[in-house]
Design a protein that fits this description.
alpha+beta; globular; NADH Oxidase; single chain; four-stranded antiparallel β-sheet
């Protein structure tokens, strides 16, 4: 499939984007990527796993501080206990390879002690830098894994019960989880998720959301025409009722209409971070 057709498939709109651009494997894989939550009962070879980790930790890092780490879960009982922390993540137990990516500000703090230098950046930016480093490393792992035919799905729900998760991972101060990651050989082809139009997410010179409502309304129609969410699968019908037009914005604003992980800030502070 050409780059142009892949872009049209991703955004559900006719476009000239991609015309004249030579296709390559990386571009094609990224444009056509799909989340994968169902896997063949086939292990991922260890030699491949190590290459994928090497690729992940080749990712950009803020000021070369390298504030990311990953905890690979090989204990199946532990994997099940982590899966059971959220009612939405029991499928994690079926992943041939499961890991939790973490921001790691502990390493540089320990090294500051070793070198007898003060750690003078104990503020919100220290947390953000570690979180971004971990997210970039995880995404690089995903790109690498999917380039060889593996399927991946990041799992933010592992943070639903953040303290029990930290106990399972034995996380010390200044280390915190950002997401789990399930990896394996896909056992079926899943649907491509339409994304917001680029006019909504790309701004030139300054932020401008003056046409947000119109753009998202059109996007909702395109996406719902594909997904056709039945009333039984709408969120919180008992609170919001059944919507005749249940598009992406209705779904996601219902999701954010109730508090979730409200204790995460307290947890991060308990891990030693000063968020001022």
């Amino acid at each position: 499939m050409t780059i142009n057709k892949l872009v049209e498939q991703r955004f559900g709109l006719p476009t000239k984007i991609g015309n004249g651009v030579t296709s390559n494997t990386t571009l094609s894989n990224i444009l056509a990527r799909r989340s994968c939550r169902s896997y063949k009962p086939k292990p991922v070879p260890e030699k491949l796993i190590q290459v994928l980790f090497a690729s992940a930790f080749s990712a950009p890092s803020k000021s070369d501080l390298q504030q990311a780490c990953v905890i690979r879960i090989e204990d199946q009982d532990k994997q099940k206990r982590i899966a059971d922390l959220s009612p939405h993540t029991t499928w994690i137990t079926k992943a041939p390879l499961f890991m939790v990516w973490c921001g790691d500000s502990r390493r540089i703090r320990r090294l500051s002690e070793m070198r007898n230098h003060p750690f003078a950046n104990d503020h919100l930016d220290a947390f953000m830098n570690a979180a971004v480093d971990a997210a970039i490393a995880m995404q690089t792992f995903i790109v690498a894994a999917e380039s060889v035919g593996l399927g991946c799905c990041p799992v933010s729900q592992v943070r639903d019960q953040i303290k029990p998760l930290s106990v399972e991972l034995e996380l010390p101060r200044w280390v915190f989880p950002i997401a789990g990651l399930c990896v394996g050989w896909p056992d079926r082809e899943t649907r491509i998720s339409l994304r917001l139009p680029l006019q909504t997410t790309i701004h030139t010179n300054s932020y401008d959301d003056s046409e947000l409502v119109e753009q998202v309304t059109d996007y909702d129609r395109r996406r719902e025409a594909i997904e056709k969410t039945p009333p039984t699968q709408q969120r919180m019908v008992e609170k919001f009722g059944v919507s005749a037009a249940y598009g992406w914005s209705e779904n996601r604003t219902r999701q954010y209409a109730i508090p979730a992980r409200a204790g995460f800030g307290r947890y991060v502070r308990d891990q030693g971070f000063n968020l001022s």
